[in-house]
Amino acid sequence: MGNRLSKIVTRTGDGGTTGLGDGARVPKWHRRVEAIGEIDELNSLLGLLLTQELPAVIQRFLQTQQHVLFDLGGELSIPGTSAIGEADVEQAEDALETLNAELPPLKEFVLPGGTPAAAHCHLARAVARRVERRLWALNEETPLNAFSLQYLNRLSDYLFVASRTLARLMGSQEITWRRR
Predict the structure, then answer these.
(1) In terms of pLDDT, which residue wins out, 70 or 5?
(2) Which of 21, 37, 108, 115 has the smallest count of CB within 10 Å of its CB?
């Protein structure tokens, strides 16, 4: 593959618009651009989480999801295309079911925290849920790939289960909510 980004400063966005992958220009505040930016934020949080010491199974899954999220951003940058499929949704479901099988049932709401890795995982989960909300808002305007919407839901669920797993594996008690 050749140089894809040989010039970083193009000045084409100085007027408040940005280019999509299909050549269209849209306002930088457009719902599609917001969603793409938040997917990038989520991917960055996964990168931050991956700087923590993690069990290999979680590390491998998250590394793979960084590529899937990049594909999702690409899908959104070219309206009408699909890069996320049923296999991506199933992979996330299988991974979260595997982790969840080792956890005790929930009896209370879990608060973010526990260990640095678990806390980073909770933050990524919260952002994944925000991304999901953004995609549903965009879906109201322009129908999106249904698998992309399902994928974000499963990824946020996985991150919740992973945060519980990480807190327990790293010797911390989960912080549970208690009525005041």
Answers:
(1) 70
(2) 108
